[in-house]
User: Fold these one by one.
Assistant:
Number 1:
Amino acid sequence: MGEKKKIKVLEAIRQGKVGGGESHILDLVKHINKDRFQPVVLSFTDGQMMTELKNIGIDNFIIPSEKAFDFSKWQKVKALMEQEQIDLVHIHGTRATSNIYWAAKNLNLPVIYTIHGWSFHNDQSPLVKKGRVMFEKWITTKTNCNISVSVSNQKTGKAKMPNFKSVVIHNGIDLKKFDPNSNERKNLRAELNIAHDAIVVCFIGRMTQQKDPLGLISAFKQLVETNPKAILLMVGDGELKEEAIQLANEYGIERSIVFENFRSDIPDILYSADIYCLPSLWEGFPIGLLEAMAMGKPVVATKVDGSVEIIENGKNGILVAPQKKQELIEAINNLIRDKDSRKKLGTAARQTIINEFDVCTMTKKIEDVYTKVLSKN
């Protein structure tokens, strides 16, 4: 008897930098049942995710493109699928879908689409929003299965697209990697030139409008006035990075903010912090928030899709309205001043992840979707 052929799954995403969707792919390919499935990853840009994939021995490819609907790349995507003898295509995010769907369908391959967050938002011009809703409506009816990463993500889809169908699979966290009690943990304060007695508020994510880093800096200006030992640690890159640095300088608080580029030692960054803050204007299902909670950190997040499904206000974290500076200041201020509250919320946060958001559960549910789609196909 020959060895049973493994099912080759193409995991495809827009970029190779590390963000929510990219962390999700890394966790998925690390934990997937390698006896049954052989993952292959395709990205349209290079970045830390691709380096990490090489390190763990997962086949990965880059077809360079920064554009949606980049027709010039479609044949290359198709050729890659043929070369790698792909059995199933799993696309993460809208941009990647626009450049992958044609090739998959041309080869009659089943397609699964994970919506990590919709491409349409309330702050877009009516024309842009309408166009994006139309595309999402079209693509979600053409796939073999849609996965929503949160119930609110699914509800938003149904509100805009009455015939929208999906299964909800929450993102999960690797509890071994994000373990505050691990002997491997390093305190990075000395390396980052942060005083051992500072209260560190940590932001980790892309410096984009979605995450509202400028709003956080504006709030921090007021926080520092009454809490001179407070430090804001901002880890990430993005189009607002330079503006964020400029704003800190304008406010004269550049010594109270530490800017770091994307890093791969996120568990140690979180270990070195006291409070985690995610002031997003919208979210799918924020992995960064789950990671901070897994590390036992008290979290302050905005009342947006995804985050509200993870945090029960006052029990395992604090929720504030988006773009309400005073609410954000008050929430962080209370945690800075109350060590017991930080400890209590942090303990409850980790327990939430253990109970509900384990990466092994997430992976098993995704494997079940793969099996179901392939058996129908």
Number 2:
Amino acid sequence: MSAKPKIKKAVLAYSGGLDTSVILKWLQDEYHCEVVTFTADIGQGEEVNPVRGKAEALGVKEIYIEDLTEEFVADYVFPMFRANTVYEGEYLLGTSIARPLIAKRMVEIANETGSDAISHGATGKGNDQVRFELGAYALKPGVHIIAPWREWNLLSREKLMKYASDHGIEVDFNKGKKSPYSMDANLLHISYEGGILENPWAEPEEDMWRWTVSPEAAPDKPTYVELTYQRGDIVAIDGKNMTPAGVLRELNRLGGGNGIGRLDIVENRYVGMKSRGCYETPGGAIMLRAHRAMESLTMDREVAHLKDELMPRYASLIYNGYWWSAEREMMQQMIDASQQYVNGVVRVKLYKGNVDIVGRKSDDSLFDEAIATFEDDSGAYDHKDASGFIRLNALRLRMQAGRRK
């Protein structure tokens, strides 16, 4: 095995939990380097400030704890939803879209503190190691990356717990009832893996879900909400202007209360294996339906169809960690340009797990009632023109038929 590189200082993505607390001490002992901790608040719903005391107890001098929720929604979630992004037909990419922001900020902190390495707690089986590291290399090509799960032999929770105990690391993992699931949360979603979910036939337990009531238990009366769009982004709910993070928080509240946003899928990881996961994305589920409704009224047909053709590629780029790639940035420019006239209001009905579009209006609408009507359109559309249109488009079909004969 090759010798470890000489590292002076490493920036660690630090949550204060068992894994990253062990990693912090392990970096100090194995690499004999100074560690800078970085903890991002991206709306995961947990208090992040206690990590400061935990890091200080392990001798950390430079501690970064930052609220990135507005940047997360404005610069990552909203641009992704302008593309109506869905991975493999279902997944709204709640975990994937948070990683490029974390990678960017880790690189910035490395530059600020003179660190020559970054480190993360992603395992060698998952997608996150790829996302963090591709982002870091794109933004700081010469950075050294330390991924302990690919180096150490602490490959079980029992070994991690023993390491913590042997080295006097204080962790909270055994206080109260611990969830049997591996979870990741941010303002867009919460995910669940492991436990009984490793059996694709097993139905998730009802008490697993944290953000949404079950559709069966949702209110019997629907909730109506009006979403105001400017250039493809929601800027107001029921006429009240909100920041991007404020929009997503309110839609999470409304969607969760109406049983919206649950998902149970088997997905294809970038590293090659299939993985079963459950997700709650109540606000995202509303945003996707409403945005498509706004586009349906205001967007040219061929532009909309081209966007739909490119979306799966765009989704794969995000899922696989290529947010900072040249092709994603090129596609984003095209997507953003398509949103110039995606302005107006969408009325949504939320009821027992369903998101129904019940109204849409826009000053930039391409819908012409005079043409679309089934009543007399007073000459706005000449029905006779359709004959030539159909015959021209049928020419190649008629030629094929002659060849078959």
Number 3:
Amino acid sequence: MASISKRGNVWQVLIFKQGVRTSKSFPTKTAAQLWASQIEAEIVAGKQGTAPPNKTFSDLLDKYATEVSPTKAGHRWEEVRIKLIQRDSLATIKLADLSQPHFSDWRDRRLKVVSAASVRREWVLLSAVCTIAHNEWRWLSHHPMKGVKLPQAAPPRDRIPTNDEIDRLKIALGYTEHPAKSVGHRVACAMLFAIETGMRAGEICNLRFEDINFDVSVAKVRTGKTAAARRDVALSPEALRLLNQIGEDMFRLTATQIDSNFRKAKKTAGIDDLHFHDTRALALTRLSKKLDILSLARMVGHRDLKMLQIYFRETAADIAKRLD
């Protein structure tokens, strides 16, 4: 039963039912009774969440990080993002008060310090948290992000390293054709391997010797966020040479090591606006001249054929030559 009492000039309602605790004040007793009856009916009908009202969005993020993130291939990224979001004022909002304006404000704050692409990635995480909290855990009575405008996607990045830049990076990383021993040397091998295969940095780091079938020139990618990402990758003669160069211990790198060493090498080589991931764009550009779009999609683990079409830059004249 709800507790209704007069406090000064207002009537205060206290409800504690089926794990839900909430309160509200009204100018009249009749209004208080009507609200209490409605809320209790919604609780019984399951329309209200069951999280205590003192729970904050930070508490919800903790629950998600503990129970859901560990089941995902990208759990490390989610854990880092969650800790970052928990430093924002959004994390202090009580779940009972959480609404669209809170996420609009969060979006606008983030856009001042990171790119729209970064905000969109974090947005997907926050939406997943709210969805499971609403649909399964009943911690939210509604999805508070519905109706909030997602930041507009930036134009696709089309930066690819030139042959000259690749040579300068190889020098900066200390690359030789001898067995790779130093971290910088292995990062250079990883860069060249990425250009040959289109594999991502994380996929290269996770590659093990038993994942390579030298008889048929295929590497098996066992980890990935999607089924398409878990795939077999055809290996060119140059890719096989690089694998033989690094030996059975493989690349022995982390994504952090690749990122930090690649950044240092860029600075040493005097190269601006280039990311390690741009090697994938170069690989796709080169492979598109040898593979049809479906074969390319299977090799690089890409589900969106429309996005791959930008790498097929043949003119009508080029196609006509192949029709002879």
Number 4:
Amino acid sequence: MTARPIAVVGASAAGLAAAETLRRSGWRGPLTLIGEESHLPYDRPPLSKQLLHGAWEPEKLRLRTEEQLAPLDLDLRLGTRATGLDVATRTLTLDGTERLACAGIVIATGVAARTLPGADRLTGVHTLRTLDDALALRDRLINGGTPASEGVAGGGGPRQLVIVGNGVLGCEAAAVARELGHEVTVVGIEETPMAAAVGTDVGTLLAEEHRARGVRLLTGAVDGFDSTPADPADGSGPQVTAVRLADGGTPGSRLPADTVLVAIGSRPAVDWLTDPALDTTDGLRCDAYCAAAPGIYAAGDVARWNHPAHGRPLRFEHRMNATEQGMAAARNLLAELAADGPTGTEDGTPAQERRPFAPVPYFWSDQYDLKIQAYGLTAGADRVETPVRDRAGRRILALYGREGRAVGVLAAGLPPRQIRALRAVVADPLPWEEARERIAAATAAG
């Protein structure tokens, strides 16, 4: 009888970390890695930075080459969609027909980009989530459909780019597009860019930086797109010409655009998980061990789990979390399987106990030559203070609180040693005043 595999659904950073950890931790049975994209696992943060800018080629984003994956002895299923999961039998459905009965499963399907009605029918309207998305937008910005001329952003000259959404992704893409020489307008429903993620003080500093670089920032909702008609003669589809704002037709309600990036957030990729045993409200709901059900774990952007230090379910779309949670989910899955009976991990050593996953969240954003770094939780704070706010020096430090405790800290323009010291302040939520004292001590150290 053939042993059942452990399946990792999602050939992402989280999925790769899970697969490698399963092998390192002693799983000798079959191991299947399933990825909807046809690409080998790659790093996503550079999509909106180095790759979009043209500084990196796709090969540099690969997390592992084929040769590096070979020792894992994977059943690698690229270009394959998971379309269903029976929780009771741990059976996956792949591409609507194939059934794969598993010993255990790690779900790392990430998120999908949100879009706007009609966007998929128009040439020039893009989202930015996958490698193919980034390459299509890069070709539009750098080549313009023709070879790029020396010293000019694209072969067709500067684009009129409208970015719908002023969150992290929209701001990063705006910075790259301006560096490439394009006309950039960013329109978002938040008055201050990235305010939902980092607060208004930090968002205001970023807004000043973008305006100084020539980015036009607008507040408003988008109502749709204008476009040219399709041309049956050459088979070309409609081309976007403007973004319509939902302001009742007042002057400026149409933003001319030959290129649009829709960056209005994402949704967890859980549509295929229809088994009622799973809670898919804002991601796949898990316990503190990253378990969604017996033998079924989740990791990365898709997972919403009970964070022990914060006492509530959280979901992070951060690169560092993807790797750390992929490793934790894999270890805890093996511990559960070992406790339940004979598994492919038998090597004479005692099974490890499951451990709660309690990371200190970390994220960063590069915009122009400004690097923003944050530890802990910055979104959803009910109190924010900025003890360092130097506009001229482009330096800022912000402390974020929730229910009387400090839960997050963000910095830009500070010495690396100071930034690293800030992590300890929010590793466990501290009383607000104690955290403020530690912040003052950390920044006074020079």
